[in-house]
Amino acid sequence: MNKFSSAVLILSSTLLFACGQQEATNEPAPAAADSGSESALQAAEQIESEYMREIIKEISQDSYEGRGPGSRGDVKARLYLAERLAELGLEPAAADDSWEQPFDLVGVNSAQPDEWVFNGADDSLTLKQWEQFIVGSGIQEESAGLTDAELVFVGYGIQAPEFDWDDYKGVDLNGKVLLMMNNDPDWDPELFAGDTRLWYGRWDYKYLSAARQGAVGAIIIHTSKSAGYPFQVVQTSWTGVQFELPAGDEPRSPVKGWVTEDSARELVAMAGFDLDALREQADNRDFTPVPLGITTSINMDVEIQRVQSANILGLIPGSDPELKDEVVIYTAHHDHLGIGTPNEEGDAIYNGAFDNATGVAQVMVIAKAIKALPEAPRRSVLIALVGAEEQGLLGSEYYAANPTFAPGKIAANINYDGGNVWGHTHDVTYIGLGKSSIDQIATMVAKEQGRVVKADQFSDKGYFYRSDQFSFAKIGVPAMYLDTGTDFVDRSPEWGREQQNHYTEVNYHQPSDEYDPNWNLDGMVDDAKLGYWTGLAIANSDLLPVWNTGDEFEQLRLDALAPVE
Ligand SMILES: [Zn+2]
């Protein structure tokens, strides 16, 4: 796996960025990338598992208390990581020579009522909190609720002019509670990218969409297929303190909830509807909202707290006097869920060893390798260990709104969230494959590793929109999120998927996501090397990566490049 020719570095500096229609921004500069490939190979040897193991073990210990944003454990992890970056010789890259880019978070802790009553014409249905529904406040105030509001089934709750799709059809939904399906239409490859989940299929889009209609509440119908995870994940992720960036002037609904599929079935049945029939209607462009003849009230006391977390930023300044103003940004989130609902064994610490101590470790070891180069890459490299990801990509969103390099100067983002702890693979997952010219580099590097790059192998789960690269894509930055492959060396073809599905079902966002000394980090070494070489190629190239023509983020990039051209 380590027999590397200099081909990647040489080729990447000259030919790799030709596929997009737009002109890249830089005048061709003398290629420095091909020199020093021998030393780049040597530096790559810094990428080994013991260094990563040490970091994973450290920050997933119980003493870090699950690294919940703003908690003692969060502070402790930030200090530890900044110290390790300093030890590697990076420069503090936040304002005032600090390692920390602080940001405020508003913690919203809703006292969920035990029961939620829905009244039909001559019947009522009472749902039980936890087993049947999960609810929270959508506003940053001391109480939230709604009174005698009418329930309307709105299908997917999507308005997408580019697909000629509008589930609302101009119906007045002000003051209503919207009952919505998760995901987006998935049966037609021409429509919402087939079974690939787009932003429209995400819960955060759903709540925003409902709020834009003036709805006072939105309830998403959970199915494991449409969410990509079991209801258990909704239960653990949506109870306790929910952090947000401070509210701006965006629309918000006071009540945001989830119900299980069975509860939704009972609920609509009370009003004489069949859930499957409603969903079938919703799979149609002609669908119009269906008032259910059900009303409901709910009220919650809400505890509001204000805390601070921070992104940890470390810089390796570029060696080229011109290009050093541009940057390749590696990200991994350092936070996890903190202390929460105990599991059956009474363990309440959500250690987040896999999610995301492994990603942090990969980015740290890449930093170590880049620092081992005799000369820094031409462009600068920023290591951004971002906070509050689990609460909705908040740290990276804050960075994207307050970047230390102008968006048009950010060459690319390479993100890690969850490493491969099961061994070498023949493949590697590149979430975002097919979207930008980074594809060509990553594909070539993987080939040198004797591996193949595969697109998201669980594309229905919408992973591109579920980790920090999405925050960068939203400001136009071409982005790659590297994830574990599924085709493991010397294992049956199904084995890898089984491991990952098992992790999702048993350990994902649970106290049992703990460090396991039996983890085999060989695959993480390979994946970190892939990110190292890819980032190096981008940092040393004459040209900037571009989104593929017609990509959903292409226009944002052109807008970002305009002021710096
Ligand atoms: Zn994560």
Description:
The protein is an alpha/beta fold and 565 residues long. It is 29% helix and 23% strand. The protein contains 16 helices and 21 strands. The protein has a 17-stranded mixed β-sheet that branches. Strands 7-8 form a two-stranded antiparallel ribbon. Strand 9, helix 5 and strand 10 form a beta-alpha-beta unit. Helix 3 crosses helix 10, helix 10 packs across helix 15 and helix 12 packs across helix 15. It is globular and about 80 Å long. The N terminus is likely disordered. Bound molecules: zinc ion.
Please outline what is shown here.
This protein is an alpha/beta fold and 565 residues long. It has helices at residues 7-14, 37-44, 49-59, 72-88, 203-212, 224-227, 231-237, 261-270, 275-282, 353-371, 394-401, 438-448, 469-473, 495-507, 522-540, 554-561, and strands at residues 91-92, 100-110, 115-119, 124-128, 133-137, 143-153, 159-160, 165-166, 177-181, 217-222, 242-244, 255-260, 290-316, 327-333, 338-339, 349-350, 380-386, 410-416, 427-431, 452-454, 479-483.
